[in-house]
Amino acid sequence: MSLPTTEPTTGLPASDFVVFGGTGDLALRKLLPALYHREREHQLPEGTRIIGGSRSELDDHGYRLVVREALQTHVAPGDLEAEAVGRLLDRIHHLTLDAETPDDWHLLHGLLKERPDPERVRVFYLAVSPALFGPICERLEQVGVVEPSSRVVMEKPIGTDLDSARRVNDAVGRVFDEAQIFRIDHYLGKESVQNLLVTRFANTFLEPLWSSHWVDHVQITVAETLGVGERGGYYDHAGALRDMVQNHLLQLLCLVAMEPPTYVGRETVRDEKLKVLQALKPMTAEDVDRDTVRGAYGQGVVDGAVVPSYAEDLGHAGSSTETFVALKAEVQNWRWAGVPFYLRTGKRMDRRVSEIVVVFKEPPHAMFPHASGPTTANRLHIQVQPEEGMRLHMTAKEPGPGGIRLRPVSLDLSYATAFSERSPDAYERLIMDTIRGNPTLFMRRDEVEAAWTWVEPILQRWAETPDRRPKTYPAGTSGPTAAAMLLERDGRTWQEHA
Ligand code: BG6
């Protein structure tokens, strides 16, 4: 099996890469730096244009200055090469567009029709508020720029619940076929997340152990030290469950739990992930009360600095939005029945880390009854970020005479040490895949809707029980104590700094 990482970047047709929201945070912080890195590697097809669309009154020259500044801010100084920056800027154009003003859109039509070659791929990247996804697609259709080879790329959030997700998908689906729609979950573009598939399926030793026979439980943590910052307006309507669990954490769970596809193809991986989402045990109201924990950060100390509470970040009290969630899920299928998957994510936690810990069962028989020292269950610790790596925790005999003393040891694989290559940002891979037309690492409509289907009873129950507000946890900690209890109740503990 091979991941499509080595897909050709030469021989691709020239593209018009149109970014709606071209002066927004996502475009300037992530998309344009990612395009720059691909430009530097000479991977952007010859003749490719990058067209920023925004409401700003900018001409091409003005937008190029904005892009240049963004690159200076968001690309590591050692990676900035004047020649590559110049090549990228030569490709850049800007159009002043307002989704509400139909007249503007003829400018886009004019610019795209300047290059009428039928091979040319048009990528429409919607780096804008989801409320504009439908209206922008409609405008694109009205001005006649959507062709069979065109693609549309959507950022999350896709809806705020199942119904609204369906409405967004319907609106976009009226203009683009499902095969033309690329829904980004940037976690799928992370190197270490793709490596999870390789670790599982390009090696043989794990697969026989990867089931309820040998796995006691799985923990998935995505912890951030940042607060909501300037994004309070969006975040307060979303919360950690919608912002992180419905997409990133469930996608990680899928990659851990899925069956091996026969090969890595456009639909096969997504088919297997969908089966996992569909096998998640639906939560009843009692399950939600028992198996979910909500928190919101209070004041505290992060990285040595005193930081404000969530309410202070928002500028008002009274919000019942969670900035932390921990929950226990179960995948009801032959492989995983009875194995808890504990998920947690939060802002303003004690460290930034995304990791998966697979905790194996204790040995079935105590062979060393007179040994001293701890016996601990084997754990495979897969660190997604910040440092990518993998650690297998084992028990070894402490060297020396006079009986057997056991000591925990670990086999460590650090990617930074093992590989000298620069690890590209998730968006570099994903952007190139939109140009290539490879949807493997994008979320299909049925996946998004299956994830909402599972999350929705939790949202509903939380809405019905407003008296159970999120518990405050001090910023700079590992979340509310109730999150620790969630595992302690089952005789387990979170693997901190595993
Ligand atoms: C985004 C969320 O999808 O992911 C943010 O909206 C979050 O709230 C971010 O901060 C985390 O991404 P990463 O790549 O920094 O782990």
Automatic annotation (TrEMBL):
Keywords: Carbohydrate metabolism, Glucose metabolism, NADP, Oxidoreductase. Coiled coil: none annotated. GO terms for cellular component: cytosol. The active site is at residue 248. InterPro entries: G6P_DH, G6P_DH_AS, G6P_DH_C, G6P_DH_NAD-bd, NAD(P)-bd_dom_sf. Catalyzes the oxidation of glucose 6-phosphate to 6-phosphogluconolactone. This is Glucose-6-phosphate 1-dehydrogenase.
